Amino acid sequence: MANIIPFKGYRYNKEKVGNLGAVMSPPYDSISKEEQAALYSVHENNVVRLVLGMEYENDTDSNNKYTRAANYLNEWIAKDILVRDKKDAIYLYEQIITVNDTQFSNKGFVVLLELEEFEKGGIMPCEQAITSSKMDRFNLLKATRANISMINCMYVETEKVLANMINELSEEEPDMDFVTEEGTRQRLWMITYEPTIEFIKKNMADKRIFITDGQNRYETCLEYKKQMMEQNPNHTGKEPYNYIMALLINAHADGLVQLPVHRLVSCPQGFKEDYFVSGAQDHFKVEKIIVDTNIEELVDTMKKQIATPRKENRIALYCGEDYFYRLTFTDREYLKNLMPDKSEAYRSLDVTVLNELLLNELLHIDESNYHEYVTFTKKSVEGVRAVKDKKYDCMFLINPTKPYQISEVAIAGEKMPERSICIFPKPATGIIINKH
């Protein structure tokens, strides 16, 4: 199912740039204007100039952020600021992070993944994608002919053949070892031994690949491939444009951290707390929990009170006072009747329960006005503070989506609702660049 190949990646030359952490950037779609300016100033060769360049009032068709990105890339290659590896490699990539005082090591393979249409079933999108950035990414790809950043994917391996290999390979001295500006340790190993590469390819060949972050970039590369095929009468299928750079992570990996994406809500008809709680009791067990303490402890209590190891949906509702409501879903048959065309995997998601039964039925927020009244946030403390300051009517805290739910929904031929998935950490941009 998954056809992967090794490649010769371009990497930053430490002798030229000094601190490798200073030339990396977060994913392009999580960089604010302020962060963009800060990355520009932190180092003259920061990869943000390639992946998310500045726009200026006097930009033209021949001088814009895309043409400048291509010029920077070619100039840095010419000056050996970016140097291409001499041997084809599959890269073992590790990120070491600390979440809630616990250290996680997230490891995966960076490869070139052969592009194929989703209909074939070997590569599957997992989430409803926001299409606004597709043209932007297409223009960047067309100008640079490069994957500046890798897409993030999962595969399912329960027997741990590749997992054991990863643990063995990571005991060797890494080819890169540094810390990014936000404090994430990054380590990279080049796997160039051909029998090892063939072993990885063989064990990945029967795996489905689930795109957890980067669907827009994947679809952009598909469109780019089509255009290149039309222009190439000698197309063989082996050209560089047939592949995309991807990070492949085992869904059962211990270091895989899923973060919840909470919902801040401004209600179209005003928020009437008593009415909402009364309506929610039709399908939920509703418990009012008083927490007369600071915001951090309030949030911590909410998270603990909705956490559950069982296949159960618990959601916290915060309305701005020194208490919150724990909503435990109790009427699965009602949701089945409401959504008979959806799989049980889809109906079991916290986000589905929230969207259909709380936002839609009680607050009259559906697909037509969702983005007008709902704001996404991973920062629960800041979200609670915003509700307390009356910037929003209420906030719904949910649990993170479990990796098995992602694959189950995709296998059922469905896509997760928007902003259901947030795998952390996302790969740093700039650690490897794939130039066609």
How many domains comprise the coordinates? 2
Structural class, from secondary structure content?
Answer: alpha+beta
Query: Over all CA atoms, what is the radius of gyration?
Result: 23 Å
Bin the strand percentage. Answer: 15-25%
Beginning-to-end CA distance, first to last residue = 24 Å
Task: Outline the secondary-structure elements.
Layout: E1 4-5, E2 10-12, H1 14-17, H2 33-42, H3 48-51, H4 65-78, E3 82-84, E4 90-99, E5 102-114, E6 123-125, H5 134-144, E7 146-147, E8 151-155, H6 161-169, E9 176-179, E10 185-191, H7 194-204, E11 209-213, H8 215-231, E12 243-250, E13 257-258, E14 262-265, H9 273-280, E15 284-290, H10 295-306, E16 314-318, E17 323-329, H11 332-338, H12 344-347, H13 350-363, H14 370-373, E18 374-377, H15 380-388, E19 394-397, H16 403-411, E20 423-424, E21 434-435
Helix pairs in contact: 4-5, 5-8
Please characterize this protein's 3D structure.
Helix 4 packs parallel to helix 5 (134-144) and helix 5 (134-144) crosses helix 8. The model has no long low-confidence stretch (mean pLDDT 91). A hairpin with a 5-residue loop joins strand 9 (176-179) and strand 10. By secondary structure, this protein is of the alpha+beta class. The two termini are 24 Å apart. The protein is globular. Helices cover 34% and strands 23% of the residues. It contains 16 helices and 21 strands. It folds into two domains: 4-257 and 424-435, no CATH class; 260-399, Conserved hypothetical protein from pyrococcus furiosus pfu- 392566-001, domain 2.
